[in-house]
Write a structure and sequence with these properties.
Layout (H helix, E strand, L loop, with lengths): L2 H9 L8 H6 L5 E5 L6 H16 L6 E5 L3 H4 L4 E2 L25 H9 L2 H19 L29 H42 L1 H4 L3 E6 L4 H10 L7 E5 L5 E5 L15 H4 L9 E4 L5 E4 L2 H14 L13
Helix pairs in contact: 3-5, 3-7, 5-6, 6-7, 7-9
Amino acid sequence: MERENYNDSINKGEFTMKTIKEILTESNGVLKLAVHNGVFHADDVLCVAMIKNKLKELGLSREVEIIRSRNPETLAQADIIMDVGGGKYDHHSSDNPMQENGVLMAACGKVADELYEGEELKMLHDYVLDSVQASDNGQKRSDLGENLFSWIRLFNISLSESSKLSDERFAQAVEMAETVFDRQLFMIREEIADRKRMKEFLSKYAENENQYSSHIFNMGKLMHWQAPVCDFNATYPDKKIKVVVFRTPTGQWNSQSVPTYVGAFTNHAPMPEKYVKKEVKFPKGTIFVHANGFMAAHETEEAAMNMAKEAVALASASTEIKNTNTF
């Protein structure tokens, strides 16, 4: 099939069997990616950045050519057309699908759905894509968290700059977006691995009365703990973990109160108020207690455990106080 006819078929939705991954691996030639010209946004920049990242991940060294146009004949020369042209990876139509969470699909979501899968894809939507999609579709959703790619708008040419610079600025934005996306994907994969380990650790914790009766969970090395621990507390309210203890990458030990739910600003067992307000000297080995009482830093594991025990002993259902827990 000639390239022009092939892309016409994709735009008409007739040739949906071939996925982006298949297109990436079917040839070693130049990969031509098309997006619209003019003002660019996080959506179209992220589409290109994700595909370039996937090429690296697959060990493919294909050269990438970016085509920015709204001309159908020009677009037809591309291997993949995104955010323009009315095709498979565009979203500017009245029948554009909506996700279960009420977010309208944008091009980056449609592209990601073919590049990733499972928990990894879900977390990409939660942490990265849905805030971008909502913004691009004009949906104001404060519940989606920070748009990690809102800075992309700054790369557009200013009123005093030549339009000839637009493609160069787009390429610069893509390069930076690749770095940001790659870092976020790395952290997502790390969190997925941590959640699996935490599930195993918490299963053993639930069976050990000496541990769960203390309401303290010492995980040793710091991991992504908040979601697994909050899930555990919801499942086993009588074995509720109120404080976690862990060693940070810098070598110090932290005792941190567990929020009442993921992202909550209320805690099960805040650090003792006398240390928060600095009414007394810190115990031996304690070097810092946060002003909002949600955590304390220590030189030793013993000091961290002692602080955790004291916090649990003072805790009750009425002692959940506001804090600025951001971990």
